[in-house]
Structures are given as C-alpha cells and as structure tokens.
Specification:
eight-stranded mixed beta sheet; alpha/beta; Rossmann fold
C-alpha cells in the first residue's frame, strides 16, 4: 500500500468533539472503515458523544477492548487498525504509520499549542516526503480548503 494522503482539519470554533462526528459520517457514507486515535480521556468522551451527537442519528462505533473487527469506527489510544480501517483520524497530537492507511485525518484545536505544533510537523513531513497533504480550516457552517499559489497547501497554523 502506498503512503497515506494526509488531510489536516484546523478547529477554530467549537470543539474537536463536535467536528469529529460529521467527518466520520462522510467516511461511512463512502464505506470507509475508520480508526480514531486519541488520549484515553478523549476516547472516552467521544465514545459517549458519538451515540448522541444528533437526535436523529448516531455514529456506530466501538472500543478496542470489544470485538474490534466488527466495528466500522474504532476508538483507540493506539494507531493499530484492528478493524481493517483505511482511514485514521488522529487527535491530541497522535501519530500513525502512513503505510497502514490510505488517508490520515489530523484534527486539531488551533488553541492547543501542543497539537498544533504536532500538526505542523506532520504537515511538513508529508510535504517533504511528496505525500499528498490538504489543509482545511473550520468556518461557520463547514470547512474551507486553503492553498498557497504555486504550492499544494499552506502550513497548517
């Protein structure tokens, strides 16, 4: 498998939690299995939030301590695609082996300097390795992709 394409999502308003469910839903619409990686407290919070994020729907998911392979969305503290995920969603400055995924989505809060610095480093690594990288910044009602003239994308942050 070729190295993953990296997509960066810079949260400016609201919470990372609120931004995650719609991104995961888009992946599920495309029949992509997803691995969400973050700190234990983040994973626990998302585990609760994904069941109730909208009144009319929920995001089907599970944790690694259960039967991981059956879950289309797996929440974990480790970047191991036990559910066969081709998409990794990285939170809290997490990292993953790009050889294991087709797409890596780094979602970070612009106010979290540690996560922001990690996203910068990941973005630079992707560009230096000539790997596809796209940068999206949150706007009211959605996402806006940013590109620099003559360059695929700007530095995230």
């Amino acid at each position: 498998m070729a190295a993953a394409e990296w997509w960066f999502y810079h949260i400016e308003q609201g919470s990372v939690d609120a931004a995650i469910a719609p991104l995961i839903e888009k992946c599920l619409e495309r029949k992509w299995r997803v691995l969400v990686v973050g700190h234990e407290d983040t994973v626990q919070r998302l585990d609760r939030a994904l069941w109730t994020w909208r009144d009319e729907s929920f995001v089907p998911h599970g944790r690694t301590r259960t039967d991981a392979a059956k879950h289309p969305v797996l929440l974990s503290t480790e970047p191991v695609p036990e559910n066969g995920a081709k998409v990794a969603v990285l939170l809290d400055g997490a990292d993953a082996d790009p050889e294991q995924f087709e797409r890596i989505m780094v979602v970070f809060d612009g106010g979290d300097e540690t996560a922001r610095a990690k996203a910068r480093q990941q973005y630079k690594t992707a560009l230096d390795g000539k790997i596809g990288a796209r940068y999206f910044q949150q706007e009211r009602g959605g996402w806006k992709e940013f590109k620099r003239p003559g360059v695929d994308n700007p530095d995230p942050a």
